[in-house]
Amino acid sequence: MLPDTALPDVVLTPGRPAVLPARPDGDLATWATNARDALRALVAEHGAVLVRGLGLRTAEECGAVIRAVTDGLTGEQEAFAPRQPRADGVWSSTPWPANQPMCMHHELSYRLEVPSLLLFACLHAPERGGSTGVADGPTVLAALPADLVARFEHEGWLLVRTYTEEIGEPWPQAFGTGDRAAVERYCAAAAITPEWLPDGGLHTRQRRRAVLPHPVTGRRCWFNQVAFLNEHTLDPEIREYLVDVYGPERLPFTTRFGGGDPIGADVVALLNEVYAAHTLREPWQDGDLLLVDNIRTAHDREAYTGARDVVAGLADPVRLDAGAQ
Prior knowledge:
325 residues; alpha+beta; Double-stranded beta-helix; seven-stranded mixed beta sheet; four-stranded antiparallel beta sheet; dioxygenase activity; antibiotic biosynthesis; dioxygenase
């Protein structure tokens, strides 16, 4: 049962996420405070819910709603591409070329402390495309080949990074400090193995779980960024260029099986195909708010045309353990 609330019924449509029509009367932050328990219950039930009709217009309004709904906000150390602050607790979307889709992933799943709740607000919808799709982790897990799941459960997965000045965040920006000793302390606490390179760069390896029990429900979830951060997700020409410039062992980023073996293009293609088969998608409308259970539910972003302004809140961090089960 949902908490007693004036919220209308959720609309459930095949192929689309749960949509909650909203008719706030007055201050949005007050509405969000009153609706908080019901909204969180809907996220727990459906994994993601799109609130339509809020009429969010500014990052400040988004911040007030986000703070009313969440228990606490978090940032994103070890970032690949810097988000820009837009308001208190509100960030820009991850920078990504508009003409390239961003494939399914669980936000910051390579860290030990991850946001368990994501909030995306659309201030301006693009002309075409650009939706944020969602996919249920337990459903994806059940659709994957049993032998592949067993290997990932046994070994986990490796994120291998080489921080450069040319692609992604240089290490001082990613870790928020230019002090090597401070970076080493962070890595020790975060189960990351660092290697300082002769040119001043940083190479890291971190082993993480690929399948995770949900911290509330206990359901097994496919939870990782194995496909999203793998070199084979890149355009083949870009991948060939990076291998030529950096070599296969010093790519800016890639993923491997937890034991260190490469993950082939066939595995990456399979993962993305399974995600695609179980993706729910709803085009953005101005003023929408999408709440996502980040442990249970992966999300992506379509390629798009026209201006798009979607801001994000990363909330309710939980601490995970490293390595495989």
